[in-house]
Write a structure and sequence with these properties.
Elements: E1 2-5, E2 8-12, H1 16-41, H2 48-75, H3 80-92, H4 96-109, E3 119-122, E4 127-130, H5 134-158, H6 169-180, H7 188-213, H8 221-230, E5 232-234, E6 241-245, E7 248-250
Parallel strand pairs: 3-6
Antiparallel strand pairs: 1-2, 2-5, 3-4, 6-7
Helix pairs in contact: 1-2, 1-7, 1-8, 5-6, 5-7, 6-7
Length: about 270
């Protein structure tokens, strides 16, 4: 991180592996949604076999990013076991402070109070306390759950007797689905196919919320640049940013003129 001037405080918001994970995740998800809906709806822009091949190529990219690289990124931050746990809960678990911020966001929608900061940086320690809009902390949990279930249903749709290291994974999934499917008057395979499609629609909905609602705002376009390219954030740009200084919330834009920003460490 570097502090270029009295009015600029640039920190590393995302590491190179964070940016790789997000870019690959976004690209793989878009490819899977488009090819999946082509397979289901029979759109004419490519053949069924081409769409299925591309779909299957994108699957390992999505799963490896979400089940290997992203967990690595999360737990490589923080010092010591408790520091890593603290980093995880601060950044990815929806807690009471997030509930308060979310409540204030709703109040702001009805013009009752200011829009709260969802980027909070501890200037003294040189680390982020949180980087996410509170609603995104809820969506992350739902997305991770949805990825697990769409992968499970996809295994059966790919091959009914698929196994890994001799373990009959597809048969296990079908057996579990068979306990639930009679409630919906479906066979196990029909239930898994319907679940796969509904989860695809969930990802479309989540994409609309994530991009079209939460971030369709000029004041957060800087986060697109940070997550896809630079990895950097200027905390002196005070929209949705709060800087913790000596255990007190001090938005950078309210800092007395001429007061020099403390040089921050890697966030």
């Amino acid at each position: 991180m570097k502090s270029n001037s009295n009015s600029t405080m640039v920190v590393e918001r995302y590491t190179i592996t964070d940016r790789i994970a997000h870019t690959v995740h976004a690209a793989a998800m878009l490819v899977l949604i488009i090819t999946g809906l082509k397979i289901y709806a029979g759109w004419d822009f490519m053949s069924f076999h081409t769409a299925r091949a591309i779909h299957m190529i994108a699957v390992p990219f999505l799963l490896s990013v979400n089940w290997i690289l992203i967990p690595y990124n999360i737990f490589s931050e923080g010092h010591g076991f408790m520091g890593k746990i603290s980093h995880f809960t601060d950044h990815y678990v929806f807690g009471p402070k997030d509930a308060t911020r979310f409540s204030n966001i709703i109040k702001n929608f009805f013009r009752k109070g200011k829009y709260p900061a969802f980027t909070i940086y501890d200037e003294e320690s040189g680390h982020y306390k949180t980087k996410l809009h509170p609603l995104m902390k809820i969506l992350i949990v739902l997305e991770g759950t949805a990825i697990f279930f769409i992968a499970a249903s996809g295994i059966v749709m790919y091959k009914l007797d698929w196994s890994l290291f001799g373990l009959p994974i597809a048969s296990w999934i079908t057996s579990i689905a068979g306990m639930i499917s009679p409630v919906f008057a479906m066979s196990a395979v029909e239930f898994l196919r319907a679940s796969h499609l509904l989860l695809t629609y969930w990802f479309v909905f989540e994409l609309v919320v994530h991009v079209g609602i939460l971030e369709f705002n000029p004041h957060v376009w800087k986060y697109y640049k940070a997550i896809f390219w630079s990895g950097k954030e200027d905390l002196s740009d005070g929209y949705y940013v709060e800087v913790l200084n000596n255990s007190k919330h001090i938005p950078e834009r309210e800092r007395p003129q001429g007061e020099k920003a403390v040089k921050a460490k890697r966030g």
